[in-house]
Amino acid sequence: MRVSGTLSIVLTVAFVLAGCQTNAEHQAAVEQDLDVRLARLNGYTMTQFIAQTGMTPVNAYPVGSGRVFVVDGPPVYVTLFATHVMPAVTRSSACRLLVATAHAGGGSSTDDWEIIGIQRSGPCNNLRV
Predict the structure, then answer these.
(1) What is the pLDDT, as a whole number, of residue 11?
(2) How far apart are alpha carbons 127 and 119 in whole angstroms?
(3) Distance in angstroms (rounded) separating the CA atoms of residues 82 and 111
(4) Main-chain dihedrals φ then ψ at residue 118, nearest 5 degrees
(5) Do residues 110 and 53 touch, judged by C-beta distance below 8 A?
(6) From the CA atom positions of the chain, what is the Rg in Å?
(7) Which of these, 4, 24, 56, 101, could form a disulfide with 113 (CB 3.0-4.6 Å)?
(8) Domain range summary for the chain, segments of one domain joined by +
(9) What is the pTM of this model?
């Protein structure tokens, strides 16, 4: 009876470990999912992007035959707790999207710029896209 109890514990631990995912694997999956969600926005106009995400550009600059819109996401706050030798420290950072667009209309409104690619930096895991 003792052997079967030990075998049961060993099998339970094996199944738990087989289902585990490392932090790096989890982060890679999150990053890949975000890349897929952002790629779905290719072909949208900037007006559609703003309506879909609720984020508006903070800047734009011309490049080649298009324009890059700079979009800052909501801030993320990280706090390092106090120790005996250091006070608590809180820092904020935000996701930044560089939305490459091509001129797709006659004017210069956000309806006239079609998304051809999006680059991201910073903590973008919580974007609503």
Answers:
(1) 62
(2) 13
(3) 49
(4) -135, 130
(5) no
(6) 23
(7) 101
(8) 2-121
(9) 0.73
Which of 45-71 are b and which e, b meaning 16 or more Cβ less than 10 Å from the residue's Cβ? Answer: bbeebbeebebebeebeeeeebbbbeb
The tens digit of pLDDT for each residue in 25-55 reads 877 888 888 899 999 999 999 999 999 999 9
Q: Is 2 helix (H, G, I), strand (E, B) or coil?
A: helix
Task: Give the up-direction half-sphere exposure of residue 99: CA atoms within 13 A in the CB hemisphere.
Answer: 32
Strand 66-80, strand 113-121: pairing: unpaired
Of 50, 6, 22, 37, the residue nearest 126 (C-alpha) = 37
pLDDT score of 86 more than 90: no
Strands 57-63 and 66-80: antiparallel
Helix (H) or strand (E) holding 71: strand 66-80
C-alpha to C-alpha distance for 73 and 101, rounded to whole angstroms = 18
pLDDT-derived band at 6, boundaries 50, 70, 90: low
- Residue 31, both tokens: 């990053």
Residues in a beta bridge with 113: 103
